[in-house]
Amino acid sequence: VNGRSPAAQHEVTLLELVDRVLNKGVVVTGDITLSVADVDLVYVGLRVLLASVSTLEQPGATAK
Amino acid sequence: VSAGGRAGRGTGWYVYGVVPAGEAHDGLLEGVSGLAGDAVGLVAAGPVAAIATRVPLDEFGEDAIATNLRDPAWLEGRVRAHENVLAAALAALPVIPFRFGTIYRSEEHVREMLGENERFVDAIERVRGRVELGVKGFVATAAPAAETEAPGASAGRRYLEEKQRARRLEEERQRLKARAAEESHERLAAAADDATANPLQSQEVSGREDEMFLNGAYLVAIEREDRFRVALGELEQELGPSGVVYEMTGPWPPYNFVEDPE
Which end of chain B is more exposed for a tag (fewer CB within 10 A), N or C? Predict the structure, then answer.
């Protein structure tokens, strides 16, 4: 839609992907299933990952 | 996927999604690598088949998966693998995507799960010939104050004028956001077979300084994808000059359109 750098595009796509793959889709009870708490932790880890990408993109951004 | 075999204590069956059994064949997923490098295959039961892979439980067992999820590199690789498998199937068949991390101890348990879920048959027909497109909409945050000032104006007066100007701009921005949110979703939904507006993401999660006003997902018939893009292009033309930006992703498997509304 709009021109973005490859790194920023990568970031958007991963976030979109995680949003769908971890939060959407059919939920059935498996012998092993992820708990909500596990998924929350994913977002913590992912923010660290994305923050490191966006820090490369925008020198002004602060990573937490 | 061979029945029984070496599915012992150390492996589980990871399920990516479900497809209609009558239309699926093993060649469909040839050359597609799964989560753990093992071949991806089909486990059929009646009218539906699960797309599944054998995974080692020392990586995907209850405790292991909870730990691995905290490793962003592991997560990214596995989440991309999950999506790649579904995307390969989606190219040929209607697909019901499963949420990440649904694992069974045996192939027999996968079959039992399929047998217990008659809803998959209807779900497949609802998404047949359709894909999901994601559209996010953003408005730019307030522009920095212009450096113009009336000659001779006092500092106090300049401060007040600047404050008024900022408030006016913010009000305009909020109006634009409300209008864009309403029109965008309405018009995109009209160009789709089904639509859902998901909760907006904070700037921290979206990773953008612009403020999100739309986080939509749209179920679109493959032959009407062009028409959907035209609708989005029209919105861009109308609202773009005011500072509205859209971001479209997809086509995706219909992640947002496979759970029955409660």
Answer: C
Tell me which residue of B51, B115, B38 sits closest to A25, measured CA to CA: B51
Q: What would the pLDDT profile of B68-95 be if each residue is shown by its tens digit?
A: 888 888 888 999 999 999 999 999 999 9
CB nearest B66 (choices: A27, A31, A38): A38
Residues A25 and B16: their CA atoms lie apart, in Å, by 10
DSSP B112-163: HHHHH-THHHHHHHHHTTEEEEEEEEEEPPPPPPP----TT--HHHHHHHHH
Q: Which helix (H) or strand (E) covers residue B239, if one does?
A: helix B225-239
- Give A16-39 pLDDT, tens digit per residue: 888 899 888 998 888 887 776 666
Determine if residue B40 is left, alpha or beta; phi over 0 gives left, psi from -120 to 50 gives alpha, anything else beta. Answer: beta
Distance between CA atoms of residues B144 and B38, nearest Å? 54
Within 8 A of B120 by CB-CB distance, chain A residues are 26
User: Are B69 and A45 an interchain contact pair (Cβ–Cβ within 8 Å)?
Assistant: yes
Distance CA B23, CA B94 (A): 9
List the single residue in B with minimal CA-CA distance to A20.
B255
Q: Does B256 touch chain A (CB under 8 A)?
A: yes
ipTM, interface predicted TM-score of the complex = 0.79
| Encoded amino acid at A12, one letter | V
CB-based contact, B69 to chain A, within 8 Å: yes
Residues 6+ apart with CB under 8 A from B129: B94, B221, B222, B223
Q: In chain A, whose CA is at the least distance from the CA of B208?
A: A54
Nearest Cβ partner of B69 from A17, A42, A49?
A: A42
pLDDT of B219-230, one tens digit each? 999 999 999 999
Q: Would you call A26 and B97 a contact, using CB atoms and an 8 Å cutoff?
A: yes
Cα separation values, B70 from A40, B74, B250, Å: 10, 8, 26
Compute the nearest-CA separation of B153 from chain A (Å).
Answer: 33
Interface contact flag, B103 A30, Cβ < 8 Å: yes
